[in-house]
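Hey,
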Amino acid sequence: MKLSEIGVVVLLVAGAQQHIMVDELSAQMLPVEQENFQSVINGKQTDLFVLENNNGMKVAITNYGGRIVSWLAPDRDGNMDDIVLGFESLEEYRTAGSSSYGATIGRFANRIAGGKFELDGETFQLEINNPPNHLHGGPGGFYHVVFDAQQLSSRHLRLQYLSPDGEEGYPGNLLVQVQFILNDDDELIIDYTAATDKSTVINLTNHAFFNLRGASLGIINDHELMINASHYTPVDDTAIPTGEITPVEGTPFDFREMAPIGMRQSRDHAQLRYVRGYDHNYVIDREQKDKIALAARIYEPETGRIMEIETTEPGIQFYGGNFLDGSDTGKSGRPHEFRYAFCLEPQHFPDSPNQPDFPSTRLDPGELFHSVSIYRLTADQN
């Protein structure tokens, strides 16, 4: 299929897979080895790509699933540690209990009720992989595909994938491009674009599991969190939004000011019981629609690491690692235990195709989907 058939208004370059090699010392510091990610899946080459800035920060990404595999970041004393849960080899990602570790999620992040939605009078049935619902693009979602990769510099990786019409039940040939850019402000910028030749729905995000103390180094309940949201979208007992947009005030979901994650998590609240804790979408407070805005800030007191997330997306999903159970063993032989990680996923709202009052996730031919999220890492100086 040619780009001209989609009618894209900007040029999306596929390019041949290229690699910028890091120097030997930098490679030795990484907790993963490149050769463990080099394989061929469905006739396409997989590899590991490393972004590095002038401050020594390094982010390792594989084009299998568009995954963030490792992120080396300094603490307040300048000590580097990996803050992303994951694995040391491609095979471990393919056999893990969860498919979403570090992955680019598509075609639709989060859940769609009953795996069904309607567009222009036609009903589309998607794969059910989180009964009774569809989750994160289905069992054959983007976390299982091999993206075409082009490393443009030591700080810039571009991934591209053409999702064929009907894949996982979605309409339209969808061309997706994801760019990862690491700058000297210690920001990882993730830039998403997409175009289609049929009306469809789309919701893209990244599903990195973070622990700012270090990957799988203990429970994250003492991380202090701020979410820039006065409202959230409550769910039913299958984690599907009820359609309500509810104030956080007076609830365990009020993170408008910094507070430890675990401070209110033990409350007897129906929303916390449904998903064993936090796994909810927040409605970001913003002055202008589609403009970049602060979504969340999270602080780890022991190391002093601070992560801030800015995004053009209307929502952000906060997940507290409630379904990690120790069955997956990650890098350095550390198990992924209950609440050993958090996810903060900029996104449109779950089940938006079935919720007319939520921001639309519809994409039509001739339109360009564009979304930007920025992850900034700093540390306090106490």
